[in-house]
Design brief:
- It is a single chain.
- By secondary structure, the chain is mainly α.
- The chain has two domains: 15-58, Orthogonal Bundle (Arc Repressor Mutant, subunit A), CATH 1.10.10.60; 70-206, Tetracycline Repressor, domain 2, CATH 1.10.357.10.
- The protein is built from ten helices and no strands.
- The protein is elongated and about 60 Å long.
- The N and C termini lie far apart (40 Å).
- The model has no long low-confidence stretch (mean pLDDT 93).
């Protein structure tokens, strides 16, 4: 994210635009420094505001952090549905892997906020766990039903979900390493297609598909 260099006094922005700038600045700072290591001063500077101006638009740092986490979990929630009566397990898993990996590639900073929070103990994730665990339980039941019906090999649906998360989240958390190893930017469409194909093939073959 490019740091804003002009203040809101020099460029007339709507309230909505300013709030969006603040949210994007917060995502950038929280993804690199976590909740504890991020200051409202650093968020204000990145958003092109004075600290006093920032506090006109936010309640406090914790409320802004919760906004960021809410944005992430809402997005993940929209991607989480596995159930479909008209598709095969391979088609459903292929789509799920695609949207999860695309999200990690398109919004690496937002994805990393979750990882930073986990590494710091995850206390501020408490309000979000019930819904996330409920969605995971539903998806795991779908996968376990496939196992019972003989559509995929015997496995634990919960472990399959976590393995998919690990393989897709890697490209957000370890983006720098991945780009160094591949000698290319993860923004390149050809490389993205290659990653999606590789991860999808690995998961599907692991499921016996």
């Amino acid at each position: 994210m490019t740091k804003v260099t002009k203040s809101v006094e020099k460029v007339k922005l709507t309230r909505e635009e300013i709030q969006n700038n603040i949210l994007q600045a917060a995502i950038y700072e929280f993804s690199r420094h976590g909740f504890i290591g991020t200051s409202t001063q650093s968020i204000a500077e990145r958003a092109g505001l004075r600290k006093s101006q920032l506090h006109y638009y936010i309640v406090d740092k914790e409320d802004l952090y919760n906004q960021v986490l809410s944005k992430l979990f809402r997005a993940w929630g929209r991607l989480s549905e596995l159930k479909s009566d008209s598709q095969t397990p391979a088609e459903i898993l292929k789509h799920y892997i695609y949207v999860k990996l695309q999200f990690a590639l398109k919004y690496p900073d937002l994805s990393r906020v979750f990882t930073m929070e986990i590494l710091s103990g995850g206390e501020r994730l408490a309000p979000f766990w019930p819904s996330a665990l409920h969605n995971t339980k539903l998806n795991s039941e779908v996968i376990n039903n496939w196992v019972q019906q003989g559509k995929i090999r015997s496995l634990d649906g919960r472990l399959l979900m976590m393995n998919i998360w690990a393989l897709t989240q890697y490209y957000a958390d370890y983006r720098i390493q991945a780009e160094l190893v591949m000698s290319a930017s993860l923004d390149e469409s050809d490389l993205q297609d290659c990653l999606i194909n590789e991860v999808t093939t690995l998961i599907l073959k692991g499921c016996g598909l």
